[in-house]
Design a protein that fits this description.
Elements (H helix, E strand, L loop, with lengths): L1 E9 L2 H13 L3 E9 L5 E9 L5 H8 L4 E6 L10
Length: about 80
């Protein structure tokens, strides 16, 4: 099953690396990645597409714990997971 996550983060070079490390470590396959800087350049919006038969909450719970993640929304499921 494919899932799409929309993540708002601070604009740091290491953020993308950490997101991908957690994704790989949790056993999700990367299906797409899009980075868009926010208008104030202080942050960026990341659209992350992953594939796995595992429950997506295993990944979203870990990504939400990352320090640089400001907001996380699951776009491909019935229930949205948010962190403000």
């Amino acid at each position: 099953m494919q899932h799409t996550l929309t993540i708002t983060t601070s604009n740091e070079a290491s953020v993308v690396e950490r997101l991908l490390q957690v994704t790989r470590y949790r056993g999700y396959q990367l299906a797409g990645l899009e980075l868009t800087p926010l208008t104030d350049r202080a942050g960026m919006q990341i659209t992350l597409k992953v594939k796995s038969d595992k429950p997506i909450t295993l990944l979203t719970n870990q990504l939400a714990k990352l320090y640089d993640v400001q907001q996380l929304a699951l776009a491909s499921a019935d229930v949205a997971v948010l962190r403000a």
